[in-house]
Write a structure and sequence with these properties.
single chain, about 250 residues, mainly alpha, Helix Hairpins, rod-shaped
């Protein structure tokens, strides 16, 4: 939500509070269907704002979860398989192709590499079980891969929710504004002879601009060390530089 939308949201909250506090002064306007529609639109706006703010936080937490699951995939599944394959490769050359991924691959490349390992190990799982891997180590390996994919999908969903909430804020603001304008007509008609209440309403419904922060102007003070002493002031009158001429009698 940008600054302009934030000011509009604060104004709408003030309108809602004004209507709640003036039920007795505005019995007709506050009991209309537009009043209920305004309240629903404002609640929807608040929900969209919360979603827009919360989605990035959830995406960050999912990124941290993805990193932890990625490390577990390398440590708990891929590394033991590769080390057992080095031992078994002497008697089973098909396992000599199993290697850890080079460098620090991206998550998509890592998942592709892990899927390839599953395909190779599936035909030789008895060798790995005899070496100490659990009987269901392939199922656990595939589950770990699927878990990372699910985490990535959920993170993408959060990014989509943020984009949807941004559009939802614009739509909810427009709906609240339309309802407020209808309520404005009702209020002006109902209390047209009460100038104090109308002035209060006019101030409440207006979107106020927040005061801007002004940088303080720097006050330049002269350096006292550069000022000459009182007795050392420069002579501005050139005639004072010449000694008076004495007449010789």
């Amino acid at each position: 939500m940008d600054k302009k939308q934030g000011r509009a949201f604060l104004s709408l909250l003030a309108v809602d509070s004004f209507l709640d506090n003036c039920v007795h002064e505005l019995p007709q306007a506050t009991s209309t269907g537009i009043r209920d529609r305004f309240r629903l639109a404002l609640n929807n706006l608040l929900l969209q704002i919360q979603m827009q703010s919360g989605a990035p936080l959830l995406a960050q937490s999912l990124t941290a979860a993805k990193d932890a699951k990625r490390a577990a995939l390398l440590r708990d599944h891929m590394a033991p398989i590769v080390r057992i394959a080095r031992i078994e490769a002497a008697s089973n050359t098909a396992l000599s192709a199993l290697r850890m991924p080079r460098g620090d691959p991206g998550v998509q490349k890592l998942l592709a590499h892990a899927a390839g390992m599953v395909a190779v190990v599936g035909d030789h799982q008895e060798s790995f079980i005899r070496a100490g891997m659990p009987a269901d180590f392939i199922d656990r390996f595939e589950a770990a891969i699927d878990d990372i994919v699910a985490t990535l999908t959920a993170r993408s969903h959060q990014h989509g929710r943020r984009g949807g909430a941004t559009a939802g804020i614009r739509a909810a603001l427009a709906e609240c504004t339309r309802c407020r304008d209808v309520l404005d007509a009702f209020i002006k008609s109902e209390v047209h002879d009460q100038p104090v209440l109308l002035a209060n309403w006019a101030s409440v419904k207006r979107v106020h601009r927040l005061p801007s922060r002004r940088k303080p102007t720097a006050i330049v003070t002269p350096d006292r060390r550069e000022l000459p002493a009182p007795g050392e002031l420069p002579i501005r009158d050139a005639s004072r530089l010449l000694s008076p001429v004495r007449m010789i009698p």
